[in-house]
Design goal:
about 180 residues; two-stranded antiparallel sheet; mainly alpha
């Protein structure tokens, strides 16, 4: 469609993401979610610090390692933050997902997701957001598929798991003790 001298284009991806968010907002109970969806659509820029904090906690729950501090999980969430700052559909998906996690956590224990202390209750919320039809779009799979790569692709954590890094530059694993990992 032409608007003056500019051409405005709509992407299929953006249309589908906004449509899924609208369906989730309409089918959710209460008007609060609809108001949140309208707020999300109007929010400029990237994610808020509370949302990032929730995503860090969510990622730690997806990939729990006591020997890793939060800085590794914060770096794992960074690509989501960067994408959300550039892509409104991703920002909306993440904001609605965090909002839904917090809503369900409030219903269950009266706290936000990141404030829930019992791991088993957070895991139940993760299982719910993965399978519940009222969960926003593809939130779980977006966070999971992005953070698994960005978490385990940090060379600083490899020694914590006994991984020596890529072997091709060192002549391969065959003659370097490929079976010396004591935790497998």
């Amino acid at each position: 469609m032409k608007l003056g001298s500019r051409t405005r284009r709509f992407s299929r991806r953006g249309f589908l993401a906004r449509g899924a968010a609208a369906v989730a907002a309409v089918t959710a109970s209460g008007g609060r979610v609809v108001a949140e969806a309208q707020h999300v659509a109007a929010a400029p820029g990237g994610l808020q610090s509370e949302e990032v904090h929730t995503l860090v906690k969510f990622t730690r729950d997806l990939f729990p390692h006591d020997r890793l501090d939060d800085s590794f999980y914060q770096r794992a969430v960074k690509p989501l933050e960067e994408e959300a700052a550039k892509d409104g559909a991703t920002r909306q998906l993440l904001m609605l997902g965090v909002s839904r996690l917090n809503e369900w956590a409030h219903q269950a224990v009266g706290k936000t997701y990141a404030e829930v202390e019992q791991e088993e209750k957070r895991v139940a919320l993760i299982q719910r957001i993965e399978t519940d039809p009222s969960a926003p779009g593809d939130f779980f799979h977006k966070v999971y598929s992005t953070t698994i790569v960005s978490l385990y692709n940090q060379p600083e954590i490899w020694p914590k798991f006994g991984y020596e890094g890529p072997s091709s530059a060192k002549g391969g694993y065959l003659d370097r003790g490929f079976n010396d990992l004591n935790w497998l």
